[in-house]
Amino acid sequence: MDAPALVALLQEAVPGARLESAPSIDLQTTLYVARDDVFAVARVLREAPDLRFALLAELTAADFWPREPRFELVYMLVSIEHGLRLRLKVRLQGDEAHVATVSPIWPAANWLEREVWDLFGIVFEGHGDLRRLLMPEDWEGHPLRKDFPVQIRLKPKSSEPLQVTEEQFRRNLEADKAARK
């Protein structure tokens, strides 16, 4: 199904939904959906008999800081029944980086949304367990944000070479040879 036909079908099923098709280098159908329409559009994509996107294959984000809208969420959907693939994108402002969870529609979104929140700080409203997944619980910030500080300033360390006696060196060699046998 091409992008214009998909947009027409979705606008009929979700009146008032703000959708737009986007060009794609890999010729995969790509649609942008407004943040407030994500849940309703996702439900139609999952349940419409002509679509049945039953598999959320991937969910990730991109940070385009300092540009606004800063973030883009990217949902990769697959309809096994109809042999369709869809890239669904959502633009998010930096100061309003939140969107409704789709985990009631696609249960696999639970872990994927946690990962995106952990790394980008995008909040999934209504998510039942939004907590750290990859970073330690006490980690501060979201490391895949472009404004995350990556310069760690440490005092340069100098060290002296390890000094061993000739006898210690020979014992170390003999121990190494014995270990290899």
Unreliable stretches (pLDDT < 50, length at least 5) are none
Helix content, binned percent: 25-40%
Global mean pLDDT: 90
The first-to-last residue Cα distance is 64 Å
Instruction: Determine the structural class based on helices, strands and strand pairing.
Output: alpha/beta
The number of helical runs is 4
Order of helices and strands: HEEHEEEEHEH
Task: Tell me the total number of β-strands.
Answer: 7
Major β-sheet profile: 5 strands, mixed
The neighbouring-strand order within the major sheet is 1-2-5-4-3
Strand content: 15-25%
Supply Rg. Answer: 25 Å
CA-based shape = elongated
What does this structure look like?
The chain is of the alpha/beta class. It has 4 helices and 7 strands; from the N terminus they run H-E-E-H-E-E-E-E-H-E-H. Helix 3 (109-120) links the parallel strand 6 (98-100) and strand 7 (123-125). The protein starts with a helix and ends with a helix. The model has no long low-confidence stretch (mean pLDDT 90).
